[in-house]
From TrEMBL:
Residues 101-117 have a biased composition (Polar residues). Residues 1-126, 166-195 are annotated as: Disordered. This is 28 kDa heat- and acid-stable phosphoprotein. Residues 27-44, 166-182 have a biased composition (Basic and acidic residues). Residues 61-75 have a biased composition (Acidic residues). Residues 183-195 have a biased composition (Basic residues). It comes from the Eukaryota. It comes from Frankliniella occidentalis. Residues 89-174 form the Casein kinase substrate phosphoprotein PP28 domain. InterPro entries: Casein_kinase_sb_PP28, HAP28.
Amino acid sequence: MPKGRGGKFVNHKGKHRSFTNPDELEEQRKREEKERQWRAERGEVTSSEEEEDDEKKGSDESDSEEESSSEEEEEGKAKGVEGLIQVENPNRVQTKAKKLSTLNTELANTASTSTKPELSRRERQELEKQRAAANYQRLHAKGKTEEARADLARLAIIKAQREEAAKKRAEDAKIKEVEAQKKKQATQKALGKKV
């Protein structure tokens, strides 16, 4: 990284980053330690020092006790101005303990009022399509739809055509049979046999 002005570094995006000197950090820690000792001699104890004292004492105890004591301190201790001002957040939902009997009555009331689940628009449309298709198939089977009527008319025409074709074939078969008989008689007559 290229070095900029005043102990600051410039990264590749042109942003400045400053780093604290470790010597300065050590000096600051020493000043804080002296201030704590001075307050301890005068009898003044701050909340941060109490926490540090608690941590030192708690290090001798077991891990489980440490966790429970730190949780209690976090719950009991207000952060910042919270301890001084009562603030109620309207967006915070506080869960209240309900009795089992009231829950059972609420569930029974909701179950009796809404037996059908609410369907979305798409689900309702899909159900309507399925019902309409089933209804159409039923009417089509009975022959009450336009398509069914057209199909029945076509079938009637085809039946008539097939009947006519069958009659024509039967007549043709009879004619062929008669001709075959005449031909047989003619050949037998030609041969001189009696019929």
